[in-house]
ABC transporter ATP-binding protein (Roseomonas fluvialis), 323 residues
Amino acid sequence: MTAPLLEVTDLRTHFFTRAGVARAVDGVSFSLAPGEILGLVGESGSGKSVTGFSLIGLVDPPGRIAGGSIRFAGQELVGLPEDRMRAIRGKRIAMVFQDPQATLNPVLTIGTQMALALQAHGRVSDRAAAERAGAMLTRVGIPEAATRLNNYPHEFSGGMRQRVAIAMALLNGPELIVADEPTTALDVSIQAQILAEMKSIARDSGTALIWISHDLATVSSLADRVLVMYAGRIVESGPVGAVLRAPLHPYTRGLLDSLPAMAKPGQRLAQIPGSAPSLLALPTGCPFAPRCAHADAACATPPPRVDRPGRHALCHHPLDAAA
């Protein structure tokens, strides 16, 4: 059996504010195999992006990793000195952010930025860097790549800028890419193209991918497994097909029912009642209980772990048992 590339155990990332401690990530555990695509889904504020930032050591004060373990290729990343983390970040673990304009420097050409990203991790000539950068732009579907290296970010469309950001993430041949909602601002046709390209890249190169999204429909067409997060915790995990066909947790069911494709023409879209709780004042017991139609007195206590073959959920009333 192949050893996991990434093992996250009881990860806790907290933000220490004047109003109190916000437990953005509260006891998250999962593993990732080489070449596997993992979907991480949930509403805004569920902790999924903070989980991604924690993996590459980009949590800014007042946030910090308060406990747990992140082992990458057998090496512990929690507590790793910044100079050693910098050698891993961008080379072995790369990240694609939601907004490419926050990634790309507006006053440098694309070719210059890609060359700097390569030369930060090794001795590479300008000519070799340009050839590598052009090859990566071609790989993500940017035509006339050699010419476009001389362009600035504002000369690209939003979809093309995101492709450039993905190409930069691929430059150093990373073993793991963390993609934080990189297609949210793009139209549906461009989303589909980028999803297909990312899936092809993971399959062809053996690169593992963590795809962070609020959209279960997107994850269903890309991921092998899915983790559903709520209030800083993983409330359900399993193979993406099994989870979407028969979710165990009422929150996962609610996310599925709220997809526009689930509504009939002329029918109002379903929604999960209420709103996500404040991470500064989580309810006792199950954090989803105030919004859950299945909640009862038992939900005032911490939910038990419910195991099924290859999957699990945290719930007093898993949906398959209720059925």
Summary: The chain has twelve helices and twelve strands. The longest strand covers residues 20-32. The first helix runs from residue 48 to 55. The CA atoms of residues 192 and 198 lie 10 Å apart.
